[in-house]
Specification:
There is one protein chain. By secondary structure, this protein is of the alpha/beta class. The chain has 8 helices and 15 strands. An 8-stranded mixed sheet has the order 1-2-15-14-11-5-3-4, with helices on both faces. Strand 12 and strand 13 form a beta hairpin. The radius of gyration is 18 Å and the shape is globular. About 4% of the residues have low confidence.
Length: 307
């Protein structure tokens, strides 16, 4: 019921969960029969002890719905951020590289819903939420990131395939004091931290991408998180739909919080528990809409290490 793949070269870009199984016309996609996980390189599984410490409890750092525009109504007014109107809803959670100092970024309306529902699932007392003007790079890096069992970031993403250390999650560009000097949470920042997370979720566009190195796989955001101790990283192979990503992520955490509801048998591996939960979320999307384009439901992959 589980597949762990160690791809090479162009296979790094294959969405294995969305491949078709010719033997199963009723459930044609691989993810409808298997939980799928990938390891970036064989040494990730061989060099690390399976008994490495994982943060206890269900403590989560949740970063979502950053402020990107000067016209965002949350600037200068505090209140219920989850219900605040979007100034310019965005369909995707990514941005192309730009020569300008500040890219034109739209608000991610559905990431507020994503954050609110995940917090409800895990319990408000277990979730440290950074959103709006609080969802800044400095606020994330000021925390001891090794304390969290889950770290979840829903934002825009920017991938640098030439200098992978510059690949980044784009957090709030503005706070109550004005323009934030540096909104980019980079792969290089992750490499300076230690993680004991069961899962780090990079809920943004292209976060599984970067620069390919022989025998190491693709180096970027998700590679950095695995290299610094995360048991599993959920990352995307292409631009993700803001609305569909929010629903997938919420259902994935529902599977982690209530694994007895999973349609796949349980195991003991932290990383594979995440893979099973994501597989169940994808299966639910297909049950609701059997003809849903895989471009919408299959961008995310679970990458594991030490399992």
């Amino acid at each position: 019921h589980e597949l762990i793949l160690i791809p090479d070269e162009f296979l790094h870009y294959v969405p294995f969960a969305a491949l078709l199984d010719p033997e199963r016309s009723d459930h044609p996609y691989v993810v409808q029969s298997f939980a799928v996980a990938e390891a970036p390189a064989l040494r990730f599984l061989g060099d690390r002890q399976a008994t490495a410490a994982v943060a206890s409890g269900t403590r989560m750092l949740l970063v979502a719905d950053p402020i990107y525009g000067a016209d965002d109504p949350r600037l200068g007014a505090r209140g219920d951020r989850a219900s605040a109107p979007a100034t310019s809803p965005s369909e995707h959670r990514g941005v192309l590289p730009t020569a300008h100092a500040e890219p034109d970024l739209a608000r991610l309306e559905s990431s507020a819903r994503e954050a609110a529902q995940i917090r409800d699932l895990l319990g408000e007392q277990n979730v440290e939420l950074l959103e709006g003007e609080g969802a800044t790079r400095d606020a994330v890096l000021d925390r001891d990131l090794s304390r969290y069992r889950f770290i979840h970031v829903a934002s825009h993403g920017l991938i640098d395939s030439e200098i992978p250390q510059l690949s980044a999650l784009i957090l709030s560009t503005r706070d109550q004091a004005g323009l934030v000097s540096d909104p980019y949470l980079r792969a290089a920042d992750l490499l300076t931290r230690t993680f004991h997370a069961q899962a780090i979720v990079l809920s943004a566009c292209d976060t599984a991408l970067g620069k390919e190195y022989r025998t190491e796989g693709i180096v970027g955001l998700r590679y950095a998180a695995l290299a610094r101790g995360a048991r599993a990283v959920v990352a995307s192979l292409w631009p993700v739909s803001d609305g569909v990503a929010a629903t997938l992520m919420v259902n994935m955490y529902r599977g982690l919080v209530a694994p007895e509801a999973s349609t796949l048998p349980r195991g003991s591996s932290d990383g594979l528990e995440v893979a099973r939960a994501l597989a169940d979320a994808m299966r639910q999307a297909l049950e609701r809409s059997p003809s849903l384009d895989p471009a919408l439901w299959a961008p995310f992959t679970v990458y594991v290490a030490g399992d």
